[in-house]
Amino acid sequence: MNKILLIIKREYLTRVKKKSFLVMTLVGPVLMAALILAPVWISTLGDDNNKDIVVIDKTNIYEDVIKDSETLHFKFINMDYEDLKANFESFNYHAVLLISEDESEFTLYSNKQVEPGVGSHIEKQIEKYKELQNLEKLGVNKSQLDSAKVDINISTIKWTEEGEEKTSPVLAQIIGFIAAIIIYMFIFMYGVQVMRGVIEEKSSRIVEVIISSVKPFQLMTGKIFGVALVALTQFLLWIILTFSIIFAVQTFMPGIEQDIAQNSVQMEQMGGNNIIAEILPALMNYNWTMLLSVFVFFFIGGYLLYSSLFAAIGAAVDNETDTQQFMLPVTIPLILAFVVAQTIVQNPSGSLAFWFSIIPFTSPIIMPVRVAMEAAPLWEILLSSATLILSFLGTVWLASKIYRVGILMYGKKTSYKELWKWIRY
Amino acid sequence: MEILQTKNVIKKFGKFTALSGVNINVEEAKIFGLLGPNGAGKTTLIRIINQITAPDAGEVFLFGEKLKPEHISQIGYLPEERGLYKKMEVGEQALYFAQLKGMKKSDAQSELKKWFTKFEIQGWWHKKVEELSKGMQQKIQFITTIVHRPKLLIFDEPFSGFDPINAELLKQEILELKNNGSTIIFSTHNMESVEQICDNIALINKSEKILDGKVDDIKQKFKSNIFEITFNGHFDKMNASLSASYEILLVKEVKAQTNVQIRLLNGMTTNQLLNQMINFGNISSFKELIPSMHDVFIKAVTLAETKNDNLDTL
Question: Which of A18, A357, B177, B306 has the CB geometry, 3.0–4.6 Å to A367, for a possible disulfide?
Fold first, then answer.
């Protein structure tokens, strides 16, 4: 046992001290923080982007109808369309709105791509005005209409033991998918690190010295756990660093929070789906403890399952170029799970979701998605956990059989037939 | 006293037999040469002693006890194929190996310092292994093999990769370890070094032990009535009258002297020959040629291949 600890310590320290680990640890959170902050930043950019739009209104009735928005300013002028077109460059207008005399055609002209918001802004106001006109023709006046107006917002509430909670299906989707990405990435990255470590020991012949001191099984498990700790360290550092970057940005650029609030108010006024206003309380109410414990469990379980297989591959080959033929069957379920995860966020309770979250080779990725979306009943989580534990015990056992023979075999290219023989030794 | 015994050790890999009933006895504080052609089964036997692999049948006794996991710390093993972690610092790595052999960190540290001083390589402690030359790496590896003061040391081709000066240094070190009471199993193809340092040997060929014993005894056993004579006189006349009693292997004329190697035939004894020879001239030297270990190795292996039975009949 003491020797396993020694091996874990060495595997951990040599990896954590590497420059590449430091770089990954620092770059990761910057990227993640950028991913979170970029949309906010971009939306603040749009604010000072004022646009002037000239309107040639042949009917002369729309001057009161089309109102300025925060960034769009409308100028009603009496000018010939052809003249304007010829001199458009010199006026520095964003676009020209032409309203035909019979009010049948509304056209935006510009020498550049007109921004999508412009058209919809104009459309909405003209539609409203025309609806009102039509209603008045039918004998409904404005005050009657105003009193008849209803505004309904659907909010999703979940019953819990503590009371009621606001939730957000979109948020759950995002969290679930992020969990899937992280687990997929970490299993792959660190599984391959285990494999490389085994190949290094084998090809440099260190292994013979070490296994005259410890059992091959101890060496293999020591390596797997050592690398697991590196993965968890990196994951933890990422979380801490990401949040400190976001926190720092919020402190030093206090405007951003207001911008978010402003943006959401604006969106609400425009009648759009207010995702952010919906997410903020939901983020607070989210069941983080459940997700985090499931995440960590399936993260570790999935990692153990796959890294033991990667260790066996490393032991079976002489160098990294030979790994291809054995890598494929191991990586296919992993990639498949990741692809399926994108479907499952749409339908987390279907039978596809159920089976992929029970099968141990895909469950480490799929189950956290379903738990994030609160679509997996407790018995399914327990069943999936149990199959995962049993299977990684199985793969570790299988891998150790391949490993202890493989690490002492040099020079021969290993076939599947050979592996089968090693397992039965 | 015997420190290591293997009794009827058998090991098969599929249809291939690596060891078929090998018995060896290694005496305490002696250097035991484990010899044999490539692929004879030496490495398999060494791996079994190191508990890297288990024998299919047979038993191994160390210090009179059946081999058990605790024995690992009593054995130091320098494999033929050796290596170190390239990216790790020398000192850190040596500490790691010493601790894997069961040493306490503080003990390992002070012992390693001693050895580093002795080999005058203190300056390497914080260097990465990849910065060292191959010969330097071998030195580090040697130190990591012996630092935990094992009672039994196993060296597989220890001199490969060393220049003559360092090889000599290593040889002296090995002899000193022996004088301090360590028992050493020494596996090599270099017969010259066997003659220089081994007390006993076992020769393995195609999974079987075909020869073992004290180096001196074995050489005596393999001598075949060959004598070297330096002679001043009438060699032709001598040949004419005595040709039936010996076979000439080599004749050299050096100045006025004749130097011949002969093998005695037909039960002729040395005294009879000498009695006859003095009639033809002066004998300035007469000695029996003892075969080198090199000759013994080749002869034993060839005999085993052709006869395919035990050499004890010799």
Answer: A357
Residue A147 counted as domain residue: no
In Å, what is the CA distance from A274 to each residue of A121, A166, A322, A357? 18, 14, 53, 32
The length of chain A, given as a count of residues: 425
Q: Under a CB-based contact definition with an 8 Å cutoff, are residues A42 and A256 in contact?
A: no
Q: Where are the alpha helices (DSSP H) in B185-287?
A: 191-197, 215-222, 235-242, 270-277
Query: Is position A352 within any domain?
Result: yes
CB contact under 8 Å between A10 and B96, yes or no, is yes
Element holding A306 (H helix, E strand)? helix A288-316
CA distance A251 to chain B (A): 42
**pLDDT tens profile B265-313:** 877 788 888 888 888 888 888 888 888 888 888 888 888 888 655 544 4
Is there a single domain that holds both residue A177 and residue A292? Answer: yes
Q: Do A81 and A210 belong together in one domain?
A: no
Cβ separation B100–A6 shorter than 8 A: yes
Within a domain: A6: yes
Same structural domain, A247 and A360: yes
The verdict on A264 and A326 lying in the same domain is yes
Q: Does some domain include residue A148?
A: no
B101 — contact with chain A (CB < 8 Å)?
Answer: yes
Q: In terms of Cα–Cα distance, which of B296, B254, B288 is closest to B271?
A: B288
Parts of chain A with a pLDDT under 70: 1, 36, 39-40, 42-49, 153, 155-169, 253-286, 411, 425
Share in percent of chain B as helix, strand, coil (round to 5)? 40, 30, 30
- A423 and chain B: CB distance < 8 Å anywhere? no
B79·A208 Cβ contact <8 A: yes
Which residues of chain A does B85 touch, with a Cβ-Cβ cutoff of 8 Å? 14, 200, 204, 206
User: By the CB < 8 Å criterion, does A212 face chain B?
Assistant: yes
Question: Would you state the pLDDT for residue B120?
Answer: 87
Note the pLDDT of residue A229.
94
Domain count, chain A: 2
Query: Which helix or strand (DSSP H or E) is residue A2 part of?
Result: helix A2-16
Domains and CATH numbers, chain B: 2-215 (3.40.50.300), 224-288 (3.30.70.260)
Residue B87 three-state SS: coil
Q: Are residues A254 and A381 in the same domain?
A: yes
Question: Which of A150-154, B23-27, B233-237, B254-258 is the most confident on average?
Answer: B23-27
CATH code of the domain in which A92 resides: 3.40.190.10
Top residue of A203, A209, A412, A415 to mutate, by most chain B CBs within 10 Å, is: A209
Q: Which residues of B touch A7 (CB under 8 A)?
A: 100
Task: Report how many Cβ contacts below 8 Å link chain A to chain B.
Answer: 53
What is the distance in angstroms between the CA of the first residue and the CA of the last residue of chain B? 28
Contact between chains at B100 and A3 (C-beta distance less than 8 A): yes
Its domain, for residue A123, covers 52-141
**Could you tell me if A126 lies within 8 Å of chain B, comparing CB atoms?**
no
- Please determine, for residue B247, whether its predicted confidence score (pLDDT) is greater than 70: yes
- CB within 8 Å: A6 and B96: yes
Answer yes or no: do A128 and A230 share one domain.
no
Q: Name the closest residue on chain A to residue B73, using Cα atoms.
A: A213
CA distance linking residue B154 with residue A226, whole number of Å:
30
Whether A204 and B52 lie within 8 Å, measured CB to CB: no
Q: In what order do the strands lie in the sheet with B31-35?
A: B75-78, B152-156, B183-187, B31-35, B200-205, B208-214
Selecting from B82, B86, B87 the residue whose C-beta is nearest the C-beta of A209 gives: B82
Does A27 lie in the same domain as A86?
A: no
Does the CB of A209 have a partner CB in chain B at under 8 Å? yes
